Every structure is written in C-alpha cells, then in structure tokens.
C-alpha cells in the first residue's frame, strides 16, 4: 500500500496531492487519461460530514489521515488507530498524527465540541461552510457561509422558522 501511495501522491503539509499516475493503476487507457487530466496536481479528498478528509483510491473510500500515516511509516498495525493529537480532524500534518490503541483514542476524545452544530459542514470545493436542515424528510439547503458562526446562526434561525424541535443542543 505504501508503494501505491508514493506512486499516487506527493505529501505537502498535511495534504495529499495527486501525482500523474502510471497507466498500470487503471483498467483502461481512457480511465488513465481522464483521471490524470482531472486530478494530477490537485489536493486529494473532500471533507465528510464527520469532519474528516476522505478520498477514493482504487474505488475504495479512505481517510486521508490513515493514508498519510501509511505513506510515511508503512501499514498500521492490527488493532491500532491513527489519532489527531490536537483533535482537529482537518489537521493531517504527520507531526499531528500518532498511532494509538482504540482505548487510548477513546480516552483522547474528550467532550464533543459545542461549536459545530448538526446541519453545518465544511464544503472544501467551495471553501465555505454549508448549512442545511431536514424538514418533513426533505433536506433543505440554507446557504454557504464564510464563517462557522454565520452558518451556525443560519441553521439555528432555520430551526426556529421551521419549528424543528431539538432534544439536545450539543449535536455534531
């Protein structure tokens, strides 16, 4: 896996940058050409609703922090996890990552953040915070915002406008 990662990416300050990949990585010449023309030189991944950077490699979703660890040190030992030392799931610099047991990682979780509200997520492609709400089983887009506080305020207002009941104020 480490060899594949080194052939596929450059590592730069916590980010994986797609390289121009060899044809042997692909099933067809068309896939090889189109993928390289779209991705080579671009930062890999997107931010998930859980706040992690995730990307697709060989048709399988992968977390960037795990791939960065493997890129630098080889495979992750069985039963071990990769932890963000500073608790920032977007900070994938190798100096912020460590290999820990499940129990160690659980102790390190601490209290869930009250800053981020349910329905607010980072949209990497737009470099903006997105606010949305589900009403009557349908997801409604509220808007994109430059700051987390603005997106959270818009989400709270939408909850009031739509009469959404919240049993807790500490959802993430």
UniProtKB/TrEMBL annotation:
Organism from which the protein derives: Klebsiella oxytoca
Pfam families, per the entry: HNH_3
GO molecular-function terms, A-Z: DNA binding; endonuclease activity
Name listed for the protein in its UniProt record: HNH endonuclease
InterPro entries: DNA-bd_dom_sf (IPR016177), His-Me_finger_sf (IPR044925), HNH_nuc (IPR003615)
UniProtKB keywords: Endonuclease, Hydrolase, Nuclease
Keyword Signal part of the UniProt annotation: no
SMART domains the record matches: HNHc
Coiled coil start-end: none
HNH nuclease domain segment(s): 58-106
Taxon lineage: Bacteria, Pseudomonadati, Pseudomonadota, Gammaproteobacteria, Enterobacterales
């Amino acid at each position: 896996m480490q060899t594949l990662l080194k052939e596929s990416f450059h590592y730069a300050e916590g980010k994986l940058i797609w390289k121009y990949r060899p044809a042997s990585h692909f099933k067809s010449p068309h896939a090889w050409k189109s993928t390289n023309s779209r991705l080579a030189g671009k930062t890999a991944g997107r931010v998930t609703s859980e706040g992690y950077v995730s990307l697709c490699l060989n048709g399988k979703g992968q977390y960037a922090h795990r791939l960065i660890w493997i890129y630098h040190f080889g495979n992750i030992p069985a039963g071990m996890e990769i932890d963000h030392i500073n608790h920032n799931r977007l900070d994938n610099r190798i100096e912020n990552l460590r290999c820990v047991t499940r129990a160690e990682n659980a102790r390190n979780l601490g209290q869930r953040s009250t800053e981020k509200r349910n329905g607010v997520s980072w949209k990497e492609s737009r470099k903006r915070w997105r606010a949305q709400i589900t009403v009557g089983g349908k997801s409604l887009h509220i808007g994109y915002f430059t700051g987390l506080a603005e997106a959270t305020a818009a989400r709270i207002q939408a909850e009031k406008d739509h009469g959404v009941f919240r049993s807790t104020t500490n959802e993430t």
